Amino acid sequence: MSLKIYNSLTREKESFKPINEGSVGMYVCGPTVYGDAHLGHAKSYVSFDIIARYIEYLGYDLTYVQNITDVGHLTDDADEGEDKLAVAAKKQKKHPMALAEYYTASYFEDMDKLNCRRPDISPRATGHIPEQIELIEKLIDAGHAYEVNGSVYFDVTSFKGYGKLSGRNLEDMLSGTRVDVKSEKKHPADFALWKKAEPNHIMQWKSPWGMGYPGWHLECSVMSMKYLGDTIDIHGGGLENKFPHHECEIAQSEAVTECPFVKYWLHNNMVTVDGTKMGKSLNNFINLKQVFAGSHERLSKAYDPLAVRMLILNSHYRSPLDFSDAALSAAESGLDKISSAVKAVRRAAEKAPEGEMNPKVQKQLEGLRHRFEKAMNDDFNTSVALSVLYELVKLAEKEAGKANRASLNAVDELFSSLGGDVLGVVRESYPEDSKALTDLADYLMQDVIEKRAKARAEKNFQEADRIRDEMAKFGVTFKDTPNGTEWVMQ
Ligand SMILES: [Zn+2]
């Protein structure tokens, strides 16, 4: 049983074999930091976080690079428009770098809440200007790029493979492009590597072609090759980046190195809200801080960030995800179910008798792990993996009151491994589960247990039932054993 990944480049599921045995390099296109992260970011970065976690689970030594775009991403993909950061900075009367700093911190804050592990390297585009200039010079020398009026463009006709990822050919691209008679490009599909800056443009750097700034696509080629080598194992990003962004990355890189830029291309699908594409003008553009605070009119309440993670896991990363208040609420119920089972098992394990691991439980756990891995090996099928986790919940509920400590610890370990390490929805500890609180509850419950025993001794069953029902509201049930009455919380 080995990992199979759907490769967008070959359009097939392929067996995963990294370039260097035992280690994996993964590059994922990061956010352009000019606003708060939204649901689309959550879908992309939770998906790749799970992919990263599962690759590590399989024992590979992973280096995960995810860039921060702080310059060059224009409001229009066709090399026109303004820099997204510069536009937002002007509006907020801030320096673009101050804005980038603010939203980078905001992005990581949200991703931490979603339990996305930090990438190993988060390189900034503005921190790699000399490297980007160097790559442009190499492209010009090799005849793949040309300079016009202080800007430099990549000549797409010089690179045979242009279009291989998105399945487009140059004629298709021509029919889809506005032919601008004033354009300085030789071919309408040529793309900018370097843009000449007007004197009032805030972000500009000195280059052999005058003052300017790099094209957006360039940073990913440069930073990917700098930190992971000429050919990397996995390159990920949103489906909307397949063309032109990733197509351009391939062209810029392979035209210079003459070797494959990426072995496996992975693309996550997009998010819709209540069945409609997210758009700022449609009032369905929801950012993560609004979800966590419940401060958007489409939301009925504040949500646990891990409920968002659960919702994303419910569908495959290559499938679109429809976000709604009802779907999120259902995902939160699922999360609560898992958390309750984990907490119950951990509490029960503390009180459970010593003993050998129950072979029947062990066999069931092994079966569940096997099925979980089978699902994840099938191009990271998280929705099936999650259904296996729910089966573990059922097993946990069945065993919590009766199994011995070794068996319960094994159940907890499987929760922590599959639900924690890989899916990231089981927490290492639950704050309300702290020892002090458990001890306090135990102390207070003695009173309740005595009251109930007294009522029963006096044959006051109405009062005994009242106590039972009252406690049931908190998920507490009583168990009468030869050593007295015990209480359990589900
Ligand atoms: Zn990129």
Automatic annotation (TrEMBL):
Cysteinyl-tRNA synthetase class Ia DALR domain: residues covered: 371-434
Main location: cytoplasm
GO molecular function, one term: cysteine-tRNA ligase activity
Any single GO CC term annotated in Swiss-Prot or TrEMBL for this entry: cytosol
Residues binding ATP: K280
Keywords assigned: Aminoacyl-tRNA synthetase, ATP-binding, Cytoplasm, Ligase, Metal-binding, Nucleotide-binding, Protein biosynthesis, Zinc
Record-annotated membrane-spanning stretches: none
Span(s) of short sequence motif 'KMSKS' region: 277-281
Motif ('HIGH' region): 31-41
Cofactor note: Binds 1 zinc ion per subunit.
Localization per Swiss-Prot or TrEMBL: Cytoplasm
Binding site for Zn(2+): C29, C220, H245, E249
Catalytic activity: tRNA(Cys) + L-cysteine + ATP = L-cysteinyl-tRNA(Cys) + AMP + diphosphate
A UniProt-annotated Pfam family: DALR_2
InterPro entries: Cys-tRNA-ligase, Cys-tRNA-synt_Ia_DALR, Cys-tRNA/MSH_ligase, CysS_C, Rossmann-like_a/b/a_fold, tRNA-synt_1_cat_dom, tRNAsynth_Ia_anticodon-bd
Cofactor(s), by name: Zn(2+)
Protein's name according to its UniProt entry: Cysteine--tRNA ligase
Provenance organism: Sedimentisphaera cyanobacteriorum
